[in-house]
Amino acid sequence: MSPSFFVTAMLAVAALAAPLIPESCDISHAQMALPANQTALAQPSGAPSFVLLGVGVQNYTCSAAGTYASAGAVAQLFDISCLVQSPAFDNVQDIAFLKPLTRMGDHYFVTSPSGTGISPVWDFRAFGRFKGNANAMVLAAKVANLPSPAGPQNVDWLQLKSVSGELATQIYRTDTRSGQPPASCTPGSALISVKYTSKYWLFGSTVVPAGNT
Ligand SMILES: *[C@@H]1O[C@H](CO)[C@@H](O)[C@H](O)[C@H]1NC(C)=O
Ligand SMILES: *[C@@H]1O[C@H](CO)[C@@H](O)[C@H](O)[C@H]1NC(C)=O
Prior knowledge:
By secondary structure, the chain is mostly beta strands. Helix content is 7%, strand content 38%. It has one domain (49-203).
């Protein structure tokens, strides 16, 4: 048998043993870019724990005054850690052509712990390598917002902090695309959902994949 046969055979075995697409990529040097000179959002310290693409809708109800008021959001969260170093990263929220993106979880709103209002949740408990880990979620509260530097048609960039859960201590929403309601509405009209995408950066996670506890 030729040496090249052995190399080919060994590569085939290696390919069987290890997945060709890694489950996640090193993001220890990933830099979250905030607009120059803005002071609304504080720069996070340290490396992110997760970098996610959110694809979903922002919901609005029509107030008696005839303007739309935020009624939360619902989105699927995709792992984009393996795109951080690639040219696709900057515009991934624009490109619906999704490379090997892994669904990590969901983003949605629940009644706030105080019982009044609603709070955002990021939840990895039903998908991927954190599936079944009861701690793989975070319920958060807004700290600050920044109008999108790409224009008022996009929902604000946000800084949030954890209220409960181990998935993150800090969360940022950046690079938002769309999601704003029309300027006015007819009082009594139904809730509307406006499509949006954004990046979500989660910092300070202490969760470990299910089975590693
Ligand atoms: C940021 O501020 C500096 C100093 O005031 C200024 O020279 C620079 O042009 C500003 N950059 C942007 C992007 O506004
Ligand atoms: C937002 O609207 C979607 C339908 O577009 C719905 O599935 C979801 O439950 C709504 N979420 C909230 C918080 O109202």
